[in-house]
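Note to self: keep these together.
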Amino acid sequence: MPSVKAVIAAASEDIKASLSSMCAEAGITDITVTDGESLRELFAEHTYDIALLVLPFEDRFGADTAAFLSKSYDTQIIAFVPSKVYDDVCAKLARSGLLILPKSSPRALIINALRSAVHTKEKLDGLREEKRTLTEMVNEMKLVSRAKCVLIEYLRISEKEAHRQMQKRAMDQRITLSEVAADILKTYEYN
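Structure:
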């Protein structure tokens, strides 16, 4: 398992120690512990793969903070809530992407949830990278197509000939087709 960074936010020192122990058992060793009050600041300064939030924090419940973090960061968040408000919190945060567990959850369930969160984070990171790669490819194809259209318009040549000229120039100059396209657009569109 690659190195996973976790943050634990809880008011109780005993709960922090217990969750730290469960993280270690799940294979997570890079753990930051906080009381929950400085959570937003921590996220602004550091990147975390997993966040364990034991609600409520000392002076506020923390559900809004949990929803904000889930929406704003690529972090798998597990929120632990008191059993008496479990249903209400689930209803409020149903579409936030949080995993919500009662505070009274058994140790084995929490460890399993941690392992699952790590694997989910890995899969989502892979999908994000694939999306980024595909977006770059589509943008390069758009750039090349625009450059071909410019050559067709200004040089009055066929699409096949425009593509052949761009490929030849890329090979001759040992640059990528998208670099050729960018140069063509710079030459013809901005003059």
